[in-house]
Amino acid sequence: MSQAVPTYHQRVAQEKRALIVTAATALFLESGYDRTSLARIAERSGVSRATLFKQFPSKAALFDAIVTESWSRADEKDPPPAGNVIGGLGIIGRRYAELLSRPQMTDLFRIVIAELPRFPELAHAQFAHGKMPYFESVRGYLMAEHEAGTVRIEDPELAATQFLGMISNYVFWPTLLLPDWKVSTERVTQVVDEAARTMAARYASTGPRSSTND
């Protein structure tokens, strides 16, 4: 019994947190970040103001939570083992496409873009707490492939940008301008596979790296 009580309270707190984040996202889109008060968010989410302030003492903290939820679990999955760059990038690419297809991801970017002139700190939060951790996981995978001799990549930051850009430019960015833009599962697979093969061809290695500097 004593172990079940904390679990119950934890579950209730998580449920209320999810309601608050969902309500805040909707209100930021409807009315703008500046014109949305924490009181309105509490009313929309159906929780008391005390409950909301306990979880999120400021709108900035709440926006950080939206960023975290939007990118949640994206960089927590283990990267593929090095040794098969086409297969590994295929796994990473499909994970990225799935991440970008989440409705909350489109909502997040729309909020950031709309509020950028007045609240540049929102863009900084989105970049620091969302994009960069995920980007670093991809860059780390490419560095591992480089060290394994599978590919030769002298600038893994640029390479990660190239790979992710090939996917997002087709799968994600059109959705910000074309609400009815849809990409089939088959098309996503094709886009990812082509991006992986392009990277493998561009950064093909002639053989294993030696332990000494070139």
Condensed summary:
This protein has 214 residues and is an all-alpha fold. The protein has 10 helices and no strands. 28% of the residues are buried.
> What's the oligomerization state?
single chain
Structural class of the secondary structure composition?
A: mainly alpha
Work out the radius of gyration.
21 Å
Number of strands: 0
Helicity, as a percent range: over 70%
Which shape, going by the Cα principal axes?
elongated
Gap between N and C termini, in Å? 64 Å
Number of helices: 10
Q: Outline the biggest β-sheet.
A: none
Could you please describe the fold and organization of this structure?
The protein is mainly alpha-helical. It contains ten helices and no strands. α1 packs across α2, α1 crosses α4 (59-70) and α8 (156-171) runs antiparallel to α10. Mean pLDDT is 88; it is low at 207-214.
Present the secondary structure layout.
Layout lengths: L3 H28 L6 H8 L3 H7 L3 H12 L14 H16 L2 H13 L4 H29 L7 H16 L1 H5 L7 H18 L12
Helix pairs in contact: 1-2, 1-4, 1-6, 2-3, 4-7, 5-8, 5-10, 6-7, 7-8, 8-10
